[in-house]
Amino acid sequence: MLQIKIKIEAFGAIERHLPTCLEISCNLNSSVYDVLNQISFDYPSALAMLERCACAIGEDIIPRQNKLTSDSTLVLLSPVAGG
C-alpha cells in the first residue's frame, strides 16, 4: 500500500497538546478521521480537543470523511469562543 506523509499544523488550544513538528505517515486514501485517530492514540491529552477542532487543507475547511490522496499539510483549528 502506498504511504503518504501528512504534516500537522495546530493553532489555538490544541497547539499546546501536540509537538510543533508533527508528521503522520498513513495509507493513500486514508481519511482525515483516520489521521486524527492516529494523533489521539499517540497524544491522548489532545483527544478532547481533536474531537472539537476544525480541519483544513490550505484555505479550505474540510470534512473528516475527506480522503487524503497526496502528501499534505493538515491544519487543526481549535474552536474559539467570544463575541
Automatic annotation (TrEMBL):
SUPFAM superfamilies, per database record: MoaD/ThiS (SSF54285)
Recorded superkingdom: Bacteria
Name this protein carries in UniProt: MoaD/ThiS family protein
